Amino acid sequence: MACTKTTIIEKICEKDYLPVNQTRDTVEALIEIMKSTLASGEDIMITGFGKFQVNEKAQRKGRNPATGKEMMLSKRRVVTFKCAGKLRDKINK
To answer: What CATH number has the domain bearing residue 78?
Structure first.
């Protein structure tokens, strides 16, 4: 099961004994900062966790899997995540 925003808020409240409303507002503010930063094309580096990076994908040929018809996919920006070494080590314990 995925860890949702609600789960994160609950875990912060349990660990730090913070009020739910304050925690929810803080998490929401953090997510909004991350969204606006990535939308502007900047990367986000969180030490010990990883790096969210905006990459440009060029226009390319693609295929509709339902019909098999070829089509041109427009250029676009995508967000990728590169795991930090500390997190990778923790995952692979």
So the answer is: 4.10.520.10
User: How far, in whole angstroms, is CA 91 from its chain's centroid?
Assistant: 18
Number of helical (H) and strand (E) elements in the chain, helices listed first: 3, 5
Which pLDDT does position 63 carry in this prediction? Answer: 93
C-alpha distances in angstroms, 53 versus 24, 32, 39?
A: 25, 16, 11
* pTM for this prediction: 0.79
For 70, the token pair is: 């070829």
User: Quick one: 55 and 13 in the same domain?
Assistant: no
Q: What is the CA radius of gyration of the chain?
A: 18
CB 27 within 8 A of CB 8: yes
